[in-house]
């Protein structure tokens, strides 16, 4: 019975993992809307820009750790914690559950960012 269930469900997991988060379509709009007003080359709140992948990775803090959303500040700082609202963004609406989920999946998937793309 268990073997049959596993063999039935296994293809579903393979299909769902085959669909990586599309940075340009799903993540970039979130970063542009919720992050860039404070973290851009002209306004370096927190001493970092989020205009390019290189900018984020150059930060001294663990803002983005590709493959590890749990330890990436970019992800956990946007989530509610212990009944408190997310720390970021400081102004405006917080990320929706869907936006936070996509951000986490993008980070866990390696945080791919098209070369040369500047937000």
Give an account of the 3D structure:
The structure is a single chain. Mean pLDDT is 87; it is low at 2-17. Helix content is 42%, strand content 0%. The chain is mainly α and 119 residues long. Helix 2 (23-34) crosses helix 5. The chain starts with a helix and ends in an 11-residue tail after the last helix. It has one domain (20-108). It is built from five helices and no strands. The radius of gyration is 16 Å and the shape is globular.
Provide keyphrases for this structure.
mainly alpha, 119 residues, disordered N terminus
Approximate helicity band: 40-55%
Ends: how far apart? 51 Å
Number of helices: 5
Morphology call: globular
- Average of per-residue pLDDT values: 87
Unreliable parts: 2-17
In brief, what are we looking at here?
This protein is 42% helix and 0% strand.
